[in-house]
Specification:
With about 130 residues, the protein is an alpha/beta fold. The chain is about 30% helix and about 20% strand. It has a single domain (about 1-125), classed as Roll (CBS-domain), CATH 3.10.580.10. The protein has five helices and seven strands, in the order H-E-H-E-E-H-E-E-H-E-E-H. A four-stranded mixed sheet has the order 1-2-3-4. Strands 5-6-7 form a three-stranded mixed sheet.
Length: about 130
């Protein structure tokens, strides 16, 4: 049963999504990332489409370069991040996340708008292994 679950069955929905606009500062993204506890913040354009993600690793690299917290998030984010769809099988998703060594992934609708987020722990807790 667990292996037949889809991303939509396990993902955190819109009200829990860690998102900031492209115009946000690095500091605003850090606040969002910290409050949501996924270790990632999605960055969206004016239409709400995902244009990048800011991860803990992106933050560390930005700070090592001396990037100030007031700088725009765009300079530190990962563009064209790995994403999934709500229909993806959770077992396939776990394999992708393990292969690419990512711990969180956004699920997008057909328009590229985030509709959910999954942490690898969500998959493991559900018995997907």
């Amino acid at each position: 049963g667990a292996r037949l679950k889809r991303a939509r069955d396990l993902m955190h929905g819109k009200e829990e999504l860690p998102l900031v606009p492209e115009t946000a500062s690095l500091q605003q993204a850090v606040v969002e990332m910290t409050s949501r506890r996924f270790g990632v913040t999605g960055v969206v354009d004016e239409a709400g489409r995902l244009v990048g993600v800011l991860t803990d690793g992106d933050l560390r690299r930005a700070f090592q370069r001396g990037t100030a917290l007031e700088q725009p998030v765009g300079g530190a984010m990962t563009r064209q991040p790995r994403t999934t769809t709500p229909e993806t099988l959770a077992a396939d998703l776990l394999g992708q996340m393990n292969e690419t060594r990512i711990t969180s992934i956004f699920a997008l609708d057909e328009a590229g708008i985030p509709v959910g987020v999954l942490h690898i722990h969500d998959l493991l807790r559900a018995g997907i292994a």
